[in-house]
């Protein structure tokens, strides 16, 4: 179970870091006068937004799976 909790913590921290990166990129883009809603695929802000969005989609499912697989087997009587 310890491994599952460590993996869960790493995934949660990764999601937090990706969210902070989006905020940082929005600040940089805003100071430079760029758009907060980029459509250029090469835009660093768009890449950061998509990375955070993809992680936000898959991390909760992975957390549940890690905790289910890492849970000790139940004892039936």
Describe this entry's structure for a reader:
The chain is mostly helical and 77 residues long. It is 75% helix and 0% strand. The chain contains two helices and no strands. The protein has helices at residues 2-32, 44-70. Helix 1 (2-32) runs antiparallel to helix 2 (44-70). The longest helix is centred in the N-terminal third of the chain and has 31 residues, at 2-32. 5% of the residues are buried.
Structural class assignment: mainly alpha
How many strand segments?
A: 0
Q: In angstroms, what is the radius of gyration?
A: 18 Å
Mean of all residue-level pLDDT scores? 92
Q: Using the alpha-carbon principal axes, give the shape.
A: elongated
Span from first to last CA? 22 Å
Question: In sequence order, what are the helices and strands, one letter per element?
Answer: HH
Unreliable stretches, pLDDT < 50, 5 or more residues?
Answer: none
Number of helices: 2
Beta-strand residue fraction: under 5%
- The proportion of residues forming helix, as a percent range, comes to over 70%
Features:
77 residues, mainly alpha
Indicate the topology:
Layout: H1 2-32, H2 44-70
Quick recap of the structure?
By secondary structure, the chain is mainly alpha-helical. It has two helices and no strands.
